[in-house]
Specification:
The relative contact order is 0.08. By secondary structure, the chain is mainly alpha-helical. The protein is elongated. The chain is 74% helix and 0% strand.
């Protein structure tokens, strides 16, 4: 059992870092303010720490309900991250595109919301 855990842990540590991943999906970019960038990154780093904590709980054979509560906390943190990002997207990207006459941004938003609500 410990051998399997060690292999899983090693495999997780050798996965490709986020910095090396290419921009996905639309290929569009958005320049964020330093404050917005810092806030979003801090949220993601806290979430990353929570996920690492769950991994540690699993490695220490923590009781299932204790792990499930922590997973629920990560889900709540990710939902909060999405709310902040979506709010900013609406107030900046969507509004700017509509003002410039690009109504397709509404269709893009609808498709994004459909994907988020699966």
């Amino acid at each position: 059992m410990d051998t399997i855990r060690n292999e899983i842990t090693e495999n997780m540590q050798t996965t490709e870092p986020a910095e090396e991943m290419e921009s996905c999906c639309s290929g569009k970019n958005k320049k964020r303010t330093d404050k917005e960038f810092k806030d979003l990154m801090n949220r993601l780093k806290r979430i990353e720490g929570q996920v690492r904590g769950i991994q540690g709980m699993l490695e220490r054979d923590a009781y299932c309900p204790d792990i499930l509560v922590q997973v629920a906390a990560v889900n709540a943190a990710l939902n909060s991250f999405n709310k902040v990002l979506l709010t900013d997207h609406l107030k900046t990207c969507v509004v700017e595109n509509i003002r410039q006459g690009n109504d397709e941004v509404v269709d893009e938003l609808v498709q994004t919301l459909k994907k988020m609500m699966k």
